[in-house]
Structures are given as structure tokens and as C-alpha cells.
Design goal:
Keywords: Ribosome biogenesis. This is Ribosome biogenesis GTPase. The protein has 110 residues and is mainly α. The chain is built from 5 helices and no strands.
């Protein structure tokens, strides 16, 4: 679909938490079986979502789309909330510091 809207630079997400929970209800239901409430469904022990991926009940591509939607939703929320924006900025700076250290170490190895 093509939409011509002069002056509009982009379309983004705004508070889609309820929508993500509805669209990915299967993943949300699996997440209730995780050992940890703050499970990110990556490598935590006792993750019911990763177990479902391993045994074929959940497609890994669907889990990736779920993660992407959550990440975009968090970024959209952080733009509106100063506390979340500050937290996101700190996390971004920490990543940048780690990358600088990694590249310096790599350059010294050459």
C-alpha cells in the first residue's frame, strides 16, 4: 500500500503493549511457564519459550518478530518517558563503551 502524506516523515509505534500481547498470545502464554518473571527468552535456565522452540512447538522466526515488536514498543515508550529515555541512553552508552574497548583490543592484537 502506498500512502502519500506530505510532511509526514515516518510512522511509528505508540504504546502497543496490549496489541503485542494479543498478537503473540501464544508466546505470552508460554512465558508464564518460565522460571523467572523477567525472562528474556534467550538463554535463561527453565525458559518455557526456548523449550517450545527446541521441541518445535514455536517457530524461531515468530519469536524473533515478537522480540522485535517488544523492542520497538520499548523504544517508542522511552521517547515519551524521561526516565525510560535516560535508562535507554545509559544502556546505549554502555554498549558503545564495550565496542570501543573491543576494537582497541583488536587493534592492539594486529
Amino acid at each position: 500500500m502506498l500512502i502519500d502524506t506530505p510532511g509526514l516523515r515516518g510512522i511509528g509505534l505508540h504504546d502497543v503493549t496490549d496489541g503485542v500481547e494479543q498478537v503473540f498470545a501464544d508466546i505470552e502464554a508460554l512465558a508464564h511457564g518460565c522460571n523467572f518473571r523477567d525472562c528474556e527468552h534467550r538463554s535463561e535456565p527453565g525458559c518455557a519459550v526456548q523449550e517450545a522452540v527446541t521441541d518445535g512447538r514455536l517457530d524461531v522466526a515468530r519469536l524473533d518478530r515478537y522480540r522485535r515488536m517488544l523492542r520497538e514498543s520499548e523504544r517508542a515508550a522511552s521517547r515519551a518517558d524521561a526516565r525510560q529515555r535516560s535508562k535507554r541512553t545509559k544502556a546505549d552508552k554502555a554498549i558503545a563503551r564495550e565496542l570501543r574497548v573491543m576494537y582497541r583490543f583488536r587493534d592492539r592484537q594486529r
